[in-house]
UniProtKB/TrEMBL annotation:
Record region (Disordered): 1-94, 294-330
Positions with biased composition (Basic residues): 39-52
Protein name: Uncharacterized protein
Tree of life domain: Eukaryota
Ranges of compositional bias, category Low complexity: 24-35, 57-84
Compositional bias per record (Acidic residues), positions renumbered to this chain: 317-330
Organism: Elaphomyces granulatus
Length: 330
DNA sequence: GATGTAAGGGCACACGGTTC
DNA sequence: GAACCGTGTGCCCTTACATC
């Protein structure tokens, strides 16, 4: 095997040494593999299929041979192709590399999307992890580009897909919040609304639902910032998280809503107001609150007999849920 | 998917305060 | 004092949810 042409791996190493940037190396390798295709006038789909099949077998010697042959095809050899330009110039600037790649794409009648697709497909098959990494790098790089970012605003087809993604992430966060915090879980009759620590609850939302937190903070940011905002409405995120949670799981994520409802009724808020707030999804229904209060009246006597247990207002991690109520948490 | 439970909705009735 | 209005409560049925 020593007389065989340079193996693909050696060839890749050599190309890499010629072109310093890894991404450009990939382009050159891809470009080399596709040079032969452009000479055979296949359809675009066929081209990509063949490119993919070539790229998926980087270790086969045939690939190396055909690649080398491709560079010697009449079409490629007739004029100096952009491929040759890249591989023969040892020290090219970034701009020159981009121009050479641009020439290549025009030469093959490829779009930038075709190039990206071929680049991503190099990681398919046995190398899904690589493909994921490439996809992530590509998306992150594109999102940093202002023009591309603006495209997200303009292309309506993208909005629904992005919203679906955000909803999935937010629902997962709400699920996390429900499982790992007391305040956003099922109602705990040992808790009292007046003992809630708003700041601590807010931190808890930030910890377990960072995307929701970021979303609410971003959307509710003052339209005209003048120095430090005077009123930060720290409880806003708690109420919004509670509304979402109650909508998701009214039986098992109703703690805050019910505490608030009971508290408002204790303050003398009338049925019509409670019903109105219930209509907005802020608190439980009037009847539910009444039932709960009736239920609370009986056990509260038992509690007083057993020694008063202070209300739990900690909304910390789920690990705290098993511990005995601690007054320090209030 | 079946099942038990809790919550919600609709309705009716009683009670108290206000208005005419 | 009658009529009206708002509130509180109870009953029954349906629906939604959690659990197995």
């Amino acid at each position: 095997m020593s007389s065989a042409p340079a193996s693909p791996s050696k060839k890749r190493r050599r190309v890499k040494s010629d072109v310093e940037e890894p991404s450009t190396t990939t382009v050159v390798t891809t470009a080399t593999a596709t040079a032969q295709i452009s000479t055979h006038h296949h359809s675009s789909r066929e081209k990509r299929r063949r490119v993919k099949s070539n790229l998926e077998e980087p270790s086969s010697t045939t690939t190396a041979v055909t690649t080398a042959t491709a560079l010697e095809t009449p079409a490629a050899a007739s004029t100096e192709t952009p491929t040759a330009q890249i591989s023969t110039h040892h020290h090219t600037s970034r701009e020159e590399k981009l121009q050479a790649i641009s020439k290549l794409l025009r030469h093959w009648r490829w779009t930038f999307g075709d190039l990206c697709l071929a680049w991503l497909q190099r990681g398919s098959g046995k190398r899904q992890a690589l493909k994921k990494k490439k996809s992530r790098d590509l998306i992150l790089a594109l999102l940093k580009d202002e023009v591309f970012f603006k495209m997200f605003e303009e292309v309506e087809e993208l909005h629904g897909t992005l919203i679906d993604l955000v909803i999935r992430l937010l629902r997962a966060e709400l699920d996390d919040l429900q499982r790992k915090t007391v305040l956003f879980g099922s109602f705990n009759k040992e808790m009292n609304f007046t003992d809630l620590d708003i700041e601590k609850s807010r931190d808890s939302v930030q910890q377990h639902a960072p995307l929701l937190f970021q979303l609410v903070e971003g959307l509710s940011q003052q339209s005209r910032l003048r120095g430090n905002p005077r009123n930060r409405h720290t409880g806003r995120i708690i109420l919004i998280a509670s509304i979402f949670s109650l909508g998701r799981a009214r039986n098992t994520a109703n703690c805050f809503a019910r505490l608030l409802g009971i508290h408002l009724q204790d303050l003398g808020v009338k049925r019509s107001v409670l019903s109105l707030l219930h209509g907005f999804g802020i608190i439980d229904g009037y009847k539910t609150i009444n039932r709960q209060r009736a239920g609370l009246a009986e056990p509260s006597n038992e509690d007083s007999d057993n020694g008063s247990i202070s209300a739990r207002a900690d909304v910390g991690d789920g690990g705290d849920e098993d511990k005995e109520p601690d007054q320090d948490d209030v």
